[in-house]
């Protein structure tokens, strides 16, 4: 019986290796741009899953503690990879790397904060409004000239954001603008990367961001633990105003799994961006919104309403127009 089990096990392993070899061979036959796009799609597929896993532990932590612990775990994993593969992660422009890390940290705090009252797809759509802000900031700061198509794209994207968030102006709530703030800060991080950090190591930039957001999370969580303010504020701000709390084994398991999936996704996406032009691949990233909605339906039975679908579609179309038209101008 044991011999038979061994034969079966060996056969299964051979089939798995054979399947992986076939898949790798087929990927290598694809054009470079399509192969890189496939890596991006796999990456955002995993990110859609990992971000939906956050909802398993949202009720066990505030946003500051979440980022502090998640960054600590992710940083340890990445440092292990840096040591094993001997990557050079020393920053060439430390001040600009720090500035980029602050902008990206603010964007992720807004994004993950949005998950406390929005679906992953809706919060992600707010984050993916960033091309609109990139264009606006580029016009204001870098004085670039834009044509009618990109102007119309900004208008379309703005309508999409409005439809998606359905703001009630008669009862304004700060939480309503958090996803859009995430897109604004992400745009500032993108511009910082493009104009000031283009020669930096991708892993170095990732570690710098993790370090900064981890420190911010730890400091703010400690401050709210020492000076509690939850009782003095509305319950819908609870996620942003909570300090340190004891964590369960369940919390550590889910956050570690989420960190691993995030690292794998970022590795695939980094590899993709090393293979071909950034402007071509940026369009593929919008697949995140589709996969986030898919995983939300699979894990949480979350179904987007018509207004959410229309808003997300407008934002995707606007982003694609801006990205493709900008690429033409640059080329």
Task: Tell me about this structure.
This protein has helices at 2-29, 32-53, 63-85, 94-114, 120-127, 130-141, 148-165, 178-196, 202-226, 238-241, 249-273, 278-282, 287-300, 306-330. It has 331 residues and is mostly helical.
Taking the sheet with the most strands, its summary is: none
Using only C-alpha atoms, the radius of gyration works out to 21 Å
Oligomer status: single chain
The amount of helix comes to over 70%
- What proportion strand? under 5%
- What is the N-to-C succession of helices and strands? HHHHHHHHHHHHHH
Average pLDDT, rounded to a whole number, is 82
How many strand units?
Answer: 0
Poorly predicted tracts of residues: none
Count of runs of 4 or more consecutive helical residues: 14
Q: Given the helix and strand composition, which structural class is it?
A: mainly alpha
The N- and C-terminal alpha carbons lie at a distance of 66 Å
Give the overall form.
globular
Topology:
Elements: H1 2-29, H2 32-53, H3 63-85, H4 94-114, H5 120-127, H6 130-141, H7 148-165, H8 178-196, H9 202-226, H10 238-241, H11 249-273, H12 278-282, H13 287-300, H14 306-330
Label this structure with key terms.
331 residues, mainly alpha, 14 helices, globular
């Amino acid at each position: 019986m044991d011999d038979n089990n061994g034969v079966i096990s060996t056969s299964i392993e051979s089939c798995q290796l054979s399947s992986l070899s076939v898949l790798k061979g087929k990927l290598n036959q694809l054009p470079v741009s399509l192969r890189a796009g496939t890596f991006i799609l796999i990456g955002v597929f995993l990110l859609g899953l990992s971000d939906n896993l956050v909802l398993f532990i949202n009720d066990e932590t505030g946003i500051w503690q979440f980022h502090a612990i998640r960054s600590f775990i992710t940083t340890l994993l990445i440092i292990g990879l840096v040591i094993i593969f001997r990557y050079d992660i020393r920053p060439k422009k430390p001040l600009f790397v720090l500035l980029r890390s602050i902008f990206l940290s603010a964007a992720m705090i807004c994004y993950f904060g949005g998950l406390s009252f929005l679906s992953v797809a809706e919060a992600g759509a707010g984050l993916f409004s960033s091309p609109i802000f990139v264009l606006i900031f580029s016009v204001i700061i870098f004085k670039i000239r834009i044509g009618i198509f990109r102007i119309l794209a900004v208008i379309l994207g703005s309508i999409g954001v409005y439809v998606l968030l359905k703001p009630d102006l008669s009862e304004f709530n700060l939480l309503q603008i958090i996803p859009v703030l995430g897109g604004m800060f992400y745009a500032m991080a993108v511009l910082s990367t493009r104009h000031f950090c283009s020669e930096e190591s991708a892993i170095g930039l990732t570690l710098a961001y993790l370090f900064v957001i981890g420190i911010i999370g730890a400091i703010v969580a400690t401050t709210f633990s020492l000076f509690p303010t939850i009782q003095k504020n509305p319950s819908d701000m609870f996620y942003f105003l909570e300090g340190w709390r004891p964590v369960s084994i369940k919390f550590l398991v889910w956050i570690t799994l989420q960190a691993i999936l995030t690292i794998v996704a970022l590795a695939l996406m980094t590899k993709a961006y090393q293979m071909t032009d950034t402007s071509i691949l940026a369009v593929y990233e919008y697949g995140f919104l589709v996969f986030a909605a898919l995983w939300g339906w699979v894990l949480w039975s979350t179904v987007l309403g018509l207004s959410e679908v229309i808003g997300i579609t407008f934002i995707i179309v606007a982003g694609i127009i801006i990205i493709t038209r900008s690429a033409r101008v640059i080329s």
